[in-house]
Amino acid sequence: MTDNQHDKLFSRTLLMLQKLSSEGSVSVADLASEYGVDKRTIYRDIKRLHFFPIELESGVVKIANGFSLENSKLQDTELLIAELAFNSINGIDANVDKHLQSIRSKLSYPTFFTPYNIKSESFEDIDMDSELLNKIEDAIIKRNLSKVKMNGLISVLEPYKIVAFDGIWYLLAKDKEDEKIKTYLIAKIDDFSATTTVYDDEYLNIDEVLQNVHTAWFEDGNSFEVEVKVKVEIAHFFKLKKHLSSQKILKENDDGSIHISFNVSSDEDVDNLIKSWLPHIEVIKPERFRKRIISELEIYLAELKR
Q1: Taking the CA of residue 115 as centre, how many other CA atoms within 13 Å lie in the half-sphere pointing to its CB?
Q2: 3-state class percentages of the chain: helix first, strand second, coil last, to nearest 5
Q3: Alpha carbon 14 to chain centroid distance?
Q4: Does the global pTM surpass 0.70?
Q5: CATH code, domain with 163
Q6: Which of 251, 266, 298, 300 is the most buried (most CB within 10 A)?
Q7: Strand, coil or helix: 167
Q8: 56: domain CATH number?
Q9: pLDDT digit of tens for each residue in the chain (306 aa)?
C-alpha cells in the first residue's frame, strides 16, 4: 500500500468514525458514495475497525446502543491511530496477539463502555482480502452463477450472501440441482469460480429470507411450529427478548409460566436453545420433537451412569 493509499485509508476511516459518532448509523451504500469507493472497500474498512463498538446489519453501520466515541478520554484521531497500529502487527504470533488484546481492553473498553458492558459474540477470523472472498463478493454483486468445490464435489450455485451463524462464516446460496437455498461453510470451500451467466433474482428478497434463517441448519422450503412451555423461573427472559425472530408468546398461565411458539425449518434451529434452558422448559409439540429431546436426555443420563 502506497503512502497516498495509507492517507486515504486513514482519512476515510476517521471520517467514518466521526460520522457514526454524530449520526449513530449510516448505510454502507451512502458511505461508499460519499467517499467515492465501492461497497467492498467500506466493508473492509469496517473489518479494520472491528474493535470499536460498531455493528453491521442489513447494509447499515451503527454505533452500538448506549455508546459514544465522545465519551472516550482519547480523541477519535488518537484512537484510530492506535487501532491501525495494532492491526499492522496483529497476527505476528499468539503471544503478541494476547498482549494486543490486553492493551486494547485497557485502552479502549473502559473509555467506550462506561457505565455499560456488553459481551459481544466472537467470530471466526476471516480474511476479507483473500482471493476466495474476493471471488465470492464479486459473484454476489454481479449475480453470477457460480461453481463451488467442497469435499471433491462441484455444485452450481446462485450466491446470495456471506453470513455468520454462531460466529462461523457461511455462504448462503441456492443449489441449482434441487433449487433450494443452503449454507456452505466457507472454511470448507476448496475452490470457487464464477461463470459469466447472470441469474435472475427479481422475485427474491434475500433479506426477507434471512429473517427466517436461524442457524446454518436452515432447510429451504421446510417450515413447522415448535411450541414450548416456559416455566415461571425463566419466563421473564423470554418476555424481555425474542430468542429467535419467529418467537411468539401464545399465552400466559396463572402460575406465571408461558407458552411460546417458534417457526423453524429444522430441529436444530431451536434444539440448542431448548437444551440450554432445561429443566425449566418443556416441548409441547410436535410430539416427534418432544420424543427426540426425551430420548437424547435418557441416552445422556445412561452414559453418565456408566
Answers
A1: 0
A2: 40, 25, 35
A3: 25
A4: no
A5: 2.30.30
A6: 266
A7: coil
A8: 1.10.10.10
A9: 454 554 566 667 777 877 877 787 888 888 888 888 888 888 888 777 766 667 777 788 887 765 555 555 455 556 556 666 666 656 556 666 666 666 655 554 444 444 444 455 566 777 767 889 889 989 998 999 999 999 999 999 999 988 888 878 899 999 999 999 999 999 999 999 999 999 987 767 887 777 778 888 888 888 899 999 999 999 999 999 888 888 999 999 999 999 999 999 889 999 989 999 999 999 999 999 999 999 999 999 999 988
Cell of 92: 505476528
Query: Structural domain of residue 41, as residue ranges?
Result: 3-112
Rounded to whole angstroms, how far apart are CA atoms 156 and 146?
A: 6
Contacting residues for 160 by C-beta, under 8 A, at least 6 apart: 140, 172, 173, 174, 181, 201, 204, 206, 209
Calculate the CA 210 to chain-centre distance: 11
Q: Which three cell numbers stand for residue 94?
A: 499468539
N-to-C CA span, the chain: 61
Map grid coordinates 431448548 to a residue. Answer: 274
Question: Grid coordinates in use for 220?
Answer: 429451504
- Report if residue 215 sits inside a domain: no
Are 290 and 229 contacting, i.e. CB atoms less than 8 angstroms apart? no
Q: How many CB atoms lie within 10 A of CB 281?
A: 21
Pairwise CA distance, residues 56 & 16, whole Å: 13
What are the beta bridge partners of residue 230?
Answer: 258, 281
